[in-house]
Design brief:
- The protein has 348 residues and is mostly beta strands.
- The strands form five sheets. The chain has a seven-stranded antiparallel β-sheet with strand order 1-24-23-22-21-20-19.
- β16 and β17 form a beta hairpin.
- It is globular, with a radius of gyration of 18 Å.
- The model has no long low-confidence stretch (mean pLDDT 97).
Length: 348
């Protein structure tokens, strides 16, 4: 159980240590053997989104109470390996890890201008994240020719009750070839054969990008999205055919600083959501919904200072976990891990 004074929290990744300038972009999955993987970007030389960036991870075998040493899952090789989006196939035990690559000197602005490449990749592990297969490029399968920038996740994917694997992602359409004016749009990547092949699924509404999904009790796929169109609030999209297409769209009354957030289905129509609940990147808050996102609890604050990206997971012992970016002066000083239970969350 969670102590009366709140969640148990610890810093998993501290910027300026282990040979990395900054750690960012958390992603969480729990394997079929009950191992928790806490994945992140290790940015070697700066906190910028470009440069020499590896995908790193730490594992826990005791429900997130302790973690082993950091290891590199995907080396950037002097360039960018970023936007981790893992999913576990419960039928095979395979951990699929999607990510994107771009050149260290080819940032998002150049990619949106059509002057630098952005490619999509996939690796996997069959031994609980100890070792990873050589990544294979998936750009041709999931990125259309008219798209410039592309992002997988970031954060965990989803396996539906049918067995379908689903990776929330997003892209930019090259209309003006200008990052400031070209539309960002959320979309899905799907697999119906345990990850042997993958294809594009539903495309959501323009003005959305980083997103995360949950399946509701009646089978609908709910997508919670970073939103560039509404006034500091989250967007959502709903699919009635397991992510093939989206047919319902809207905006939540969930305050958000135009930043990534995380959503987790924990049974039936109950959802858990985490984000920086402010117009600035601060106040990392966790909320719950008992009705598939129609209404939300007031929430509990995990960190009242600077904060940004996060991810959520349900642990084998029934506790919940959140890995999030936090700091006192800046929001990228550390990746902090919190363990808490639904009882504590619902009491807020």
């Amino acid at each position: 159980m969670t102590p009366e004074n709140g969640p148990v929290q610890t810093d998993l990744y501290t910027s300026g240590t282990l040979g990395y300038h900054t750690f960012r972009i958390p992603a969480l999955v729990v394997t079929t053997r009950g191992t928790l993987l806490a994945i992140a970007e290790g940015r070697r030389n700066s906190q910028h989104d470009t440069g020499d960036i590896d995908l790193v991870l730490r594992r826990s075998h005791d429900n997130g109470q302790t973690f082993d040493d950091m290891r590199v899952a995907v080396p950037g090789g002097g360039n960018v390996a970023g936007n981790p989006a893992p999913v576990v196939d419960a039928e095979t035990g395979t951990i699929w890890l999607w990510f994107c690559r771009n050149n260290a000197d080819g940032p998002e602005t150049m990619i949106c201008a059509g002057k630098a490449p952005r490619t999509v990749w996939l690796t996997s592990s069959d031994d609980d994240g100890q070792t990873w297969a050589d990544p294979r490029e998936m750009t041709a399968e999931v990125k259309l020719p008219g798209w410039t920038w592309y992002g997988t996740g970031p954060g965990h994917g989803l396996q539906l009750a049918s067995g379908r694997l689903l990776i929330p992602s997003y892209h930019v359409i090259g209309q003006n070839f200008d990052r400031a004016t070209d539309p960002y749009i959320s979309h899905l990547i799907l697999s119906d054969d345990n990850g042997k092949t993958w294809r594009l699924g539903g495309v959501a509404q323009p003005g959305t990008n980083e997103c995360m999904a949950a399946q509701l009790a009646d089978g609908r796929v709910y997508l919670n999205e970073r939103n560039y169109l509404g006034e500091y609030r989250r967007a959502f999209a709903v699919s009635h055919d397991e992510g093939e297409r989206f047919d319902a769209f809207g905006w939540h009354e969930l305050i958000d600083p135009i930043c990534q957030g995380a959503v987790l289905g924990v049974g039936g129509d109950r959802l858990v959501f985490s984000n920086a609940a402010s117009r600035a990147r601060e106040r990392l808050t966790v909320r719950s919904s008992a009705d598939g996102g129609q209404t939300w609890s007031r929430g509990r604050v995990l960190h009242d200072g600077r904060a940004a990206y996060s991810d959520l997971c349900e642990l084998p012992d029934g506790m919940l976990g959140c890995l999030y970016e936090a700091g006192s002066v800046g929001e990228y000083e550390r990746l902090r891990w919190a363990r808490f239970d639904l009882e504590w969350l619902h009491a807020g």
